[in-house]
Design brief:
Structural class: mainly alpha
Number of strands: 0
Mean pLDDT: 83
Shape: globular
Largest sheet: none
Number of helices: 8
Distance between the termini: 58 Å
Helix content: over 70%
């Protein structure tokens, strides 16, 4: 893994904390994360494109109840890292979508494991109120490390696998994938359209 991609994973893992853990300045939104991460890879237009596409693709998915939507930051990071490694952007994006769904499942598992520790943390905080800072810092660090390691492994595995498979993709299948990639924003807009209609009495 190149230093550029390692830095990309590091920054993406930091931005991912903005989703729910710290800040919530909307920097983890695809439309923000894509261009920010592209400053590392050097292709700003690709960053804007995957940022907008991931934002539109996941726009109508709400984090309701125990459901965690796929992360647009993770999607942008994987797309840009694979693209920087020579994988065509239209293929990299769909591999990134799968990766962002997998990371959402891991995050859900992490949250379930934290629930088991809540009673123990509560007792310690009642005894020592300053212990809450240690709990928050530990959870932030754990989430950051999990996202960094998952991103690093997924990108490394993706590069190793796709560099072997991409030359074997039939031309027609590649054209179909390009067409599907260009259809992504239209699908996203179609899903959002009902939200902008005037409500009739």
């Amino acid at each position: 893994m190149t230093p550029e991609i390692a830095l990309l994973c590091f920054v993406a893992a930091l931005l991912e904390l903005d989703t729910t853990y710290a800040g919530q300045f909307q920097l983890s939104r695809g439309i923000m994360a894509g261009p920010l991460l592209s400053l590392i890879t050097g292709d700003w237009m690709a960053g804007v494109q995957v940022g907008v596409f991931s934002e539109l693709l996941f726009a109508d998915i709400s984090p309701l109840g125990g459901f965690l939507p796929p992360s647009t930051t993770i999607c942008c990071a994987i797309s840009l890292a694979l693209y920087a490694a020579g994988i065509p952007l239209h293929l990299a994006f769909f591999i990134a979508v799968i990766g962002s769904i997998l990371v959402a499942h891991v995050e859900k598992w992490m949250r379930k494991t934290r629930v088991k520790s809540l009673a123990r943390w509560e007792q310690r905080v009642l005894q020592k109120p300053n212990y809450i800072n240690r709990v928050i810092l530990k959870n932030l660090l754990t989430s950051f490390l999990m996202n960094f390691l998952l991103l690093s492994f997924y990108i490394w595995a993706g590069i190793q696998l796709l560099t072997q498979l991409v030359p074997l993709v039939p031309h027609r299948a590649d054209i179909a994938c390009q067409f599907a990639y260009m259809a992504v924003p239209w699908l996203g807009l179609a899903a959002l359209l009902p939200e902008f209609r005037f409500k009739r009495k």
